[in-house]
Specification:
InterPro entries: AAA+_ATPase (IPR003593), ABC_transporter-like_ATP-bd (IPR003439), ABC_transporter-like_CS (IPR017871), P-loop_NTPase (IPR027417), PstB-like (IPR005670). The protein has nine helices and ten strands. By secondary structure, it is of the alpha/beta class. The chain has a domain of about 170 residues: P-loop containing nucleotide triphosphate hydrolases (Rossmann fold, 3-Layer(aba) Sandwich), CATH 3.40.50.300. The structure holds adenosine-5'-triphosphate and magnesium ion.
């Protein structure tokens, strides 16, 4: 199976089930938008897929490798985690130069100095920030820091890119650069992209398929055009039109 699939997923906090998904799959090379009201479980889904948390039950299939998420050890999860990249809403930079921040994943992967340098420079060029290479990362503007967070993820060439509202606090200029970069990567490398966004026009611009998450369930999924123009369930129609009261 050349795809990513999550099955029998249940996530609870205390005695509250916040996410219950029978089965959801993502084809390799697809660009998926994930939308839904606040608290619906969108970030939880991506955190679980990125192996940052363990659910009560669930299996993950990642491009040919199948794992049980409940019993997965850190060591067994690491090779899977290395196929994924994750960018959250707020970038967290290490107290080091921009170069060292972008190079971090490559150091863990024991790349040679020469290869590392070439890859970091390529990633910095991609996000149009070659000129801040030697700057301390904690002095970057919010928009620059988020583009560096993207470069740091892309430099490791992930097969699956998980984006959790990555442009939510960016200005239009930085949003357009961020979007251009992920579209380029998607086109050139066939990276599978899952992007959570509250910016519905952004989901329409970028995603081929959209999913609507509400109350811990994936309640609708369709190609982007149908998703926004012919929603099947009233919940989604209400959400899109702004009538949904969260
Ligand atoms: N560690 C935790 N402990 C307890 N409850 C949690 C925890 N993490 C998330 N939750 C709860 O799980 C639910 C889903 O949270 P999640 O962050 O996935 O929502 P979301 O759809 O990403 O919302 P938003 O659009 O606001 O980011 C929320 O009600 C949240 O309060
Ligand atoms: Mg969230």
């Amino acid at each position: 199976m050349d795809r990513v699939e999550v099955r029998n997923l249940e996530v609870t906090y205390g005695n509250r089930t916040v996410l219950a998904v029978d089965r959801v799959s993502f084809e390799r090379g697809g660009f998926y938008g994930i939308v839904g009201p606040s608290g619906a479980g969108k970030s939880t889904l991506l955190r679980i897929m990125n192996l940052l948390e363990r659910p009560v039950s669930g299996q993950l299939h990642l491009f040919g490798t199948e794992v049980d998420l409940t019993s997965l050890s850190y060591a067994k999860g690491l090779p899977l985690q290395r196929q994924m990249g994750f960018v959250a809403q707020k970038p967290s930079m290490f107290q080091a130069s921009v170069y060292d921040n972008v190079a971090l994943g490559l150091r863990y992967r024991k790349k040679s100095r020469m290869e590392m340098q070439a890859l970091v420079e390529e990633a910095l060029e991609l996000v149009e920030l070659s000129h801040v290479r030697d700057q301390r990362a904690n002095t970057l503007s919010g928009g620059e820091a988020q583009r560096i967070a993207l470069a740091r993820t892309l430099v490791c060439d992930p097969s699956l890119l998980l984006l959790d509202e990555p442009t939510a606090s960016l200005d239009p200029y930085n949003i357009s650069i961020f979007e251009r970069v992920i579209q380029t990567i998607h086109r050139q490398k066939q990276t599978t992209i899952l992007m959570i966004t509250h910016n519905l026009p952004q989901a329409r611009r970028l995603a081929q398929t959209c999913l609507f998450v509400n109350n811990g369930r994936i309640v609708e999924r369709s190609d982007t055009e149908a998703f926004f123009h012919r929603p099947r369930c009233t919940e989604l129609a209400d959400f899109i039109s702004g009538r949904m009261i969260c």
